[in-house]
Amino acid sequence: MHFASRLLLILSLLVAPLAFANGADSKLPFTLKGQWQQGSMLIGNTVPGNQVWFNGRALSVSPDGDFVFGLDRDEKPDAEIKVQTSPEAAPQIWPYKVAARAWSIQRIDGLLPDKVEPPAAVTARIEREAVLLNAARDRDTPQTGFRQNFIWAATGRISGVFGNQRILNGIPKQPHYGVDVAVPTGTVIRAPADGVVSLAEPDLYFTGGTIIIDHGQGVSSIMVHLSALKAKVGDVVKQGDVVALSGMTGRATGPHLHWGINWFRSRLDPEKLLPPMPVSRKK
Ligand SMILES: [Zn+2]
Q1: How much distance in Å is there from the Cα of 220 to the middle of ligand 1?
Q2: Is the separation of the CB atoms in 27 and 13 below 8 Å?
Q3: What's the gap in Å between 24 CA and the centre of ligand 1?
Q4: Is there a single domain that holds both residue 73 and residue 128?
Q5: What range defines the domain where residue 164 resides?
Q6: 149, 150, 210, 261 from 157: Cα distances, Å
Q7: pTM across the whole model
Q8: What is the residue range of the signal peptide feature (predicted)?
């Protein structure tokens, strides 16, 4: 192909999805709800039987055509959705741009080493527990709880927001992959959406009492620092069911609920899925 016409083709491919997203092209074989922004979850619908990929990953499509994917805190700006409408049809690709968000980065130097890295004696334990957590997050099950309007697992002052990161003695620590709600120990923690309990551990090193609820198609909630678990692995829970009591187990400096939402291993911002907290929040 001539260079100029190839360039024109590339340019038209880049521009096309913007028009599609505005509904200008009725031939788009899917609809999408959600923001193309780091930390967001997007829910799509297509004709059941169509195959859909997000950034090369094949997505489950529910019997009524729903699919879901999430944009990680550090999601790259270029994304694409690929759809194949029949085994004979050529797959079509739509590129999208993911908007970056600004995360607060805090540098603290001069800390004692034991405040920065966990002791070597617990390394094997931490690795073992990471395997458990990843296995729960890797599930791809047909539940459709992810389609509900999520509710707050507990209400209270928001004491920590998603995405912040601390750099201690020059070492970047894991960013804050969840929202913190300051609640006294023993506060009931509710399932934010329907699902199945995929992990219930009373005492993990970092997260203490920990519950993961599988909301289907890779979407899961993790609630940590719990003082008591009120559900076990395999329990089917409805939105609003009590699954645990809050606490400050694991590496927590005070009682609070830490709640994270994942799409597989991508870390999403719970506040993007929720109505505003129904109490006054920290400035
Ligand atoms: Zn937290």
Answers
A1: 16
A2: no
A3: 42
A4: no
A5: 105-273
A6: 21, 18, 21, 19
A7: 0.88
A8: 1-21
